[in-house]
User: What shape does this take?
Amino acid sequence: MRRFSPEYLDRTRRGMWDDDREALSPLRLPERDRVLDVGCGTGELTRVLAAETSPDATVLGTDADRELLRAAQAREHANDADIAPDAPPAPDDTHTDPDAGFDAPNATATPAYLAGDAARLPVADAAVDLVVCQALLINLPEPRAAIREFRRVSSDLVAAIEPNNADVGVSSTVDAEERLEREARTAYLDGVGTNVALGDRVRELFRREGIESVTTRRYYHEKRIEPPYSEQSVSAAARKASGAGLADHRAELEAALSPAEYDDLRSRWRSMGRDVVAAMRDREYERVEVVPFDVTVGRVGSA
Assistant: This one.
């Protein structure tokens, strides 16, 4: 299982469902009573699920990384949303009671968080009526093991929202950025060690695990940078110029590139980043990135 920092997840996931949630309609969220978000990270999707379910639904996020869970809980507190007193405890004290979080008399759609591995979920059989993940299966060496757990703990629907990172499109007013993004992405796909272009193959994996009535809907997550620039956009440009953005994926890139090739890519990447910073100073920089996600939903069969 690959690990990510809270900052990295903030940069890549924040705002994904702000504009359009139509692709989530097959999850029938207003009808859900108990929802489990597996591999929830800092809780970006978990909060969307809570907002779309009824006020008396229980929404629980689980992740194996306690640092990410602490960030998710801190976000809830920052939003003045206190965790219900009978919900699962803070991650440092989290237990693995298989009924954790689902019998709390005061549970509401305010998300609660629980530590747990996707391949060994600390949740009882058929404890939820929807289990969902976002950008999780692409980071697992054996995604089918997680899907088997999803099927075990759900009494109704199973859903996976997974990107196809091989089809990401980038356009930029800095010409070198498009070319270098393609070069870095090709090397990353070769060196990552898991199928990060899994998106449209989830349908097949679901069916292999006995999940029925499988449907897929595509969602395009657009990330746009244009004047006036947000603080996050300015920070991202500075990370390009320093090489820090590329270094986030150094291990994967070095698995596909020789040391000399990586150093050359990093040098050209930093030069491109300086061009981006200069263009931002002149308010002439624009960038659009489009990431395709496949929302795959199926029903737990009787077998």
In short: The two ends are 29 Å apart (CA to CA). Residues 80-96, 103-108 have pLDDT under 50 and may be disordered. Residues 259-281 form the longest helix (23 residues).
